[in-house]
Amino acid sequence: MTELMNALITTSDKDAPFSLSKIPMPEVFDQDVLVEVQAVSVNPVDTKQRTVAVANGSTKVLGYDAVGTISAIGSKVTKFKVGDKIMYAGELGRTGSNAQFEAVHENLAALAPEGFQNAQLAGVPLTFLTAYELLVDKFGLIPDKNANDGQTILIINGAGGVGSSMIQLAKWMGLKVIATASRPETKKWVLQLGATHVVNHREDYVQAIHELGYEALPYIAILHDPNQHFEQAAELISAFGHIGSIVENQQPLPMNLIKNKAASFDWEFMFAKANYQFDTASQGAALALAARLIENGEYLIPVTQTLHGMTAETLLEGHHIIEANNFIGKLTIEY
Predict the structure, then answer these.
(1) What is the b/e burial string over 41-54, where b = at least 16 CB atoms within 10 angstroms of the residue's CB?
(2) Does residue 96 come out as left (phi exceeding 0), alpha (psi in the -120 to 50 range) or beta?
(3) C-beta neighbour count of 312 within 10 angstroms
């Protein structure tokens, strides 16, 4: 008889897009661990995936950012044992973490740091990995403490989930950080996380950055709609510099603006490694770094709100909070 578990699946009803259902337990492959999920976060990718699923009438279990305890392991697992608490970001094509149990490849996880609440830890993996991969894999920065002294980065939308991680990671790596923020509370937040300067992305921030004494910048991370910021980034980027984005453009970007600077444009998509089986072990290694930074007090977990109880109503509430597009830091749900 097939063993079942509770899960929140998507429906075709946009007003009630989640339904608590009994579904089969996930299949555990040789290098998978089976995790009893204890807390998850809600990210923009969840809201986008929900919208697509509702429009298509497909039933999916969402959730890509979680912490939990391993209840079983595959026959070839070497990194973990039953009873370990891990944090991880899952895969787009598999049953997600809005369920009692989730199967995840061991390469995509790391031991959770001790002494921290589940609701906090669930807010670490996805945004930390996104920030790390853009800084290290795409920009080519060195992932060691103070290894990039003398470099400066502009982070557009610094108070969001990825920005909250990137500010801290970039500062730890030795960069000076210019972060954008437009509200008093977001300006305070990015300064608390370690930004050297704050400029307002609703104003002429190119001029503001020039007034800070910077004619050009070697690294610019666009963590919001790139169509709104590409021209400014193109003006600010230095020769042979890097502009990176994590948000899909809605209109063609004027790449010709950076051609004569020999500057690069870099896409970051955290799920690409798992989707294409590309260096997946690097994600577990990056999360192990996050755990060390947390334990050493060098990384503030950017969770600012936690909802309690994984119900259809609570999950939808979390999605609506994120969709309001003014949230600071990370939102999590504790089971």
Answers:
(1) bbbbbbbebbeebb
(2) beta
(3) 17
CA within 13 Å, CB half, 16? 3
Residue 34 has phi, psi (to 5 degrees) of -95, 120
Model confidence pLDDT, tens digit, residues 124-176: 999 999 999 999 999 999 999 999 999 999 999 999 999 999 999 999 999 99
Give the whole-angstrom CA distance, residue 326 versus residue 85: 32
DSSP state of 12: S
Q: Are 138 and 244 in contact (CB under 8 A)?
A: yes
The DSSP annotation for 256-315 comes to: GGGGGGT-EEEE--TTHHHHTT-STHHHHHHHHHHHHHHHTT-S---EEEEEES--HHHH
Q: Is 242 helix (H, G, I), strand (E, B) or coil?
A: strand
| 310 residue type, one letter | M
How far is the CA of 103 from the CAs of 22, 86, 232, in angstroms? 16, 12, 43
How do the residues of the chain divide into helix, strand and coil, expressed in percent and rounded to 5? Answer: 35, 25, 40
Tokens representing 188 are 């305070």
Alpha-carbon dihedral sign for residues 65, 328, 333, 170: positive
pLDDT at 1: 67
Q: How far apart are the first and last CA of the chain?
A: 27
Per-residue pLDDT at 27: 95
> Distance (Å, rounded) from C-alpha 246 to C-alpha 258?
18
Q: Rounded to the nearest 5°, which phi and psi values hold at 54? A: -65, -45
> For residue 114, what are its two tokens?
């001790």
What digits encode the pLDDT tens for the residues 69-110?
A: 999 999 999 999 999 999 999 999 899 999 999 999 999 999
